[in-house]
Amino acid sequence: MPNRRTLLAASIFASLCLPVAAQAQDNDPSANAATAKPASGGKQPVKELQGVTVTGIRASLAKSIDTKRNADAVVEAVTAEDIGKFPSTNVAEAISQIPGVTIDRRFGQGERVSIDGTDPSLNLTFLDGHPVAQTPWLLGEQPNRGFDYTQLAPEVLGRLEVYKSPEARLPEGSIGGTVIMHTRQPFDLAPNTLSGSVGTVYNDQARRGRPNASVLYSWHDADSTFGVATSIAHYEEQVDRQGIEIFGYSPVSDLTTNPNVAAQVASGQIKPGDQMAQEVNGAYFQQHRQRDSVTLGMQWKPTDRLQFDLNGLYVRENFQNWNQSLYAITSDHINGITGLASDGNGRITGGHSCGTDTAGCPDHAITMLDENVRKSVVTTKGLDLKGAYRGDGWSLGGQGGFSNSGNPNADAALFTPRYYGGYAWDARKGMRFDDPAAARDPANWKLDNNSYYTRTPTHTRDVYGQLDFGKDFDGFFNQLQAGVRYTKHTEDSSWLRYYVPASADGTTVADIGGAGYTDIFGAFPGMSDDYRRHLQVERGKARDWVIGQTLGNGVSPDPSTYLNNTWNLEQKARAAYAQLDFASGDWHGNLGVRYVHTVIDSLGYEAGADAALPPPPGAAQRSSRTFNDWLPSINVVYDTSGPLVLRGSAAKVIAWAPYNQLVNNTSLVDDQLTGSGGNNKLDPYTSYNFNVSAELYFDEQSMLALSVFYKHILNYIETDARIERQFNSLFGSDTYDALAARPPTPGRQGNCDAQGFCDYSVLRPANGGAASVKGFTLSYQQPFGDSGFGIAANYTYSHGKTDTGEDLPYNSTSAFNVSPYFEKGAFTARINYGRRGRYLAGGYVAGAPPASVDSYTNVSATLGWRFNDNFSLTLDGMNLLDEKYYQFDRGSGRAWNDYSTGRRYLASAHFKF
Fold first, then answer.
1. Domain annotation covers residue 513
2. Which of 33, 438, 682, 699 has its CA 20 to 30 A from that of 196?
3. Is the alpha carbon torsion for 63, 65, 67, 70 positive or negative?
4. Rounded (10°) CA dihedral 83, 88, 92, 98
């Protein structure tokens, strides 16, 4: 139907209309307009897109250019066609092609997005103008304000924009940028549109594929007064992550009570300052990830002046996973070390510890098998109602709704049998048992009360409402936008941990049954056979044994774990804004101010460290804080209607730390003596942001753009590790006894006493000094005539530092993407080469030192064949170079973690009627 308005055409037409009505509709300038902007300004006239059917890479890139050129702010756009034509299984992978946007791939696919070198928590994402509640799926994961893009199937979106410069009408809370996503709406599609896909995702490391499918149906009446659109999507993927992990280091000087180590130091073979890994862990994470989503959109337009939109979202994600680790614990029972090897550059690369199978061994080694069977099902749902009335030269609109997310039945069963035979270890190749046959015998692996069962229910809710008014004028200032917005976010979390009782001590894996042997770590050549093919227990039997020993025996939950990890928070904000749009001759833009009144109420429990009291003493820590912020902004555009467009913007912005960091809470990893916690005295990030850009639209569908950004952050929240005295919930176990046997090291982890208290290294946020992020993006886009070939490319330079010279999290100095494509007739091909430089990220476990992620290169490709207007096939390949995710300490060069997730392939058949 060549004359129908497609989703994208209608979206772009709406996006080029003036923002007032859009604000009333969606709180962003690209939604269905309630009123049009006066034509008295010098802004480029809006192109009428009625009758255009947008298909293909080239056409969708052209629409993104139109959105960028006609915006009053610094904006990047991705269309529905782009999202489908990039090799991706979620939205984050697609928008990583935008200049200044980078993603983190800790589990092999993009989850959270950084914009212009800022932490993902400092960016906001909205769906159809409203927030989407989120709940962490991984035990120990920290709640994050940055959106988790694995939540949404790409099929449900029509387009998205990334606002890099603020406007007064946009919600506060972002320093890097604001992402606004739009679902497909019935008035944007032809009546009785039916489209969808079926396919499979294959992971070569897991050696298996999983199915996926989606379908969308849309209808509206002949007069476009009422319409309904609904979509259903099912997605599955097998996640397979192999890894080598190190959680901490000890100097050789801590080990010299061992005569063997002391002799090596005296002979010069090793040095007192050489650093030895406290444990070397072979980690294997497996997950059958499933996502089911349903969207419903209804539009009612009773008159030409009045329209209502109702949107509903339901997402159910099954994140059940099994993580097993084989720890060579080098730092416990240090008197059993028989020798160490050094690389001569300050690092201990390997060594040997004797065990119970060695005659005369003074202190036996410990090897721990850690099997963590986790259940995690996250459900997210929301409902949003919008209304807009367009009068003669004025408009009134409103929006309100809620979004809930929960993981109420999340739990984990940790099964930890131990072996006490000797071994040799290598930091990069794993361990080799002195007696491999004995290490493969289930009767030699014994359990004690270090195993436990944990329940970790979490809930999140967002409630919001907004009212907007717009008034048109003739003259330089041609439109006034004003409005108010109310938001309330509530979040709570608690942990109930049940330890296996001492009566289970001495139980062996042979007693439980279900023992087998792994065949893993093919991703790391040279890995020792004892790491690759070690003992494991059937996950169901491991889980059943732990639950039977805890809940089945009526064990009470551990009070210290509950106190440390139980908290709730409520953040309410009332905002009001006024914005004037202006246009005259070659100039247009806007200026305005936003006022925000924020109240944060929190409740956490702080465990005490008084050994004279029965452990663990604790008290509720309540906090209520109020903030008032005025946030001015201005955007100016110079557009001569020729090829060159110049932009400039300035704004004051605020952002908040992740929710859990605003509460006095503490999460401890007792066997590692590490932890992380919050701080109810945190102030908001405050920043002055500046952007200038020059865009050259030198040919049809072609663009060369340079954008420079500078963010001066007055209060950058810093996270530092400090020594804190905390109660260890492993008190009374063999693990605690081993920790208590370590030599006292004042000022560092350790010093465990006879009452169960130890010194922990705990990461906590604190109000810091100033910081800055400055850099530029360069983007280029051009089709090469009628050859079918074209290219899109961008480069980002970002330099982020605190005023003391510390790196800013998730800031890569350089990142670039090159994406050549070919589109001719029925055939489509596209290759993406993306690389981001190293960046600082958090450690894998709570309280682990911050780790730098090494430079990461992602090569992906997509091939497509269109049989006719109704049927097509695509084949996508992701991470084709099989890149590893490597973490290290930038200052010392010490290795932390090295992960492999494999290549991923997606084959899909598409239909549209």
1. no
2. 33
3. negative
4. -60
Instruction: Tell me: pLDDT of 750 over 90.
Output: no
Instruction: State the amino acid at position 310 in one-letter form.
Output: L
The pLDDT of 737-751, averaged and rounded, is 81
Smallest Cα–Cα separation from 258: which of 367, 352, 346, 328? 352
Question: Considering only CA atoms, which of 142, 96, 118 is closest in space to residue 840?
Answer: 118
**Domain coverage including residue 381:** 7-249+280-326+374-413+455-496+560-730+758-912
The pLDDT tens digits for 337-376 are 999 999 999 999 999 999 999 999 998 898 999 999 999 9
CA distance linking residue 427 with residue 524, whole number of Å? 13
* 658 lies in some domain: yes
Lowest mean pLDDT among 100-114, 205-219, 425-439, 864-878: 100-114
Separation between Cα atoms, residue 94 and residue 506, nearest integer Å: 52
Rounded distance, CA 51 to CA 16, Å? 16
Q: What are phi and psi of 912, to 5 degrees?
A: -155, 130
- Please report, as a single letter, which amino acid is at residue 136: P
Diameter of the chain measured on Cα atoms: 96
Cis? peptide before 2, omega within 30° of 0? no
Pairing of strands 178-183, 124-127: parallel
For the record, the structure tokens of 742 come out as 């370590």
Residue 512 lies in a domain: no
Across 25-29, 256-260, 459-463, 868-872, least confident range:
25-29
Domain containing residue 594: CATH number: 2.40.170.20
By C-alpha distance, which of 572, 213, 131, 180 is closest to 380? Answer: 131
Q: How far apart are CA 881 and CA 858, in angstroms?
A: 7
- Report the C-alpha gap between 76 and 131 in whole angstroms: 20
Instruction: Supply the Cα-derived Rg of the chain in whole angstroms.
Output: 29
The distance from CA 601 to its chain's CA centroid, rounded to whole angstroms, is: 25
Residue linked to tokens 């007032």? 20
Let me know if residue 421 belongs to a domain.
no
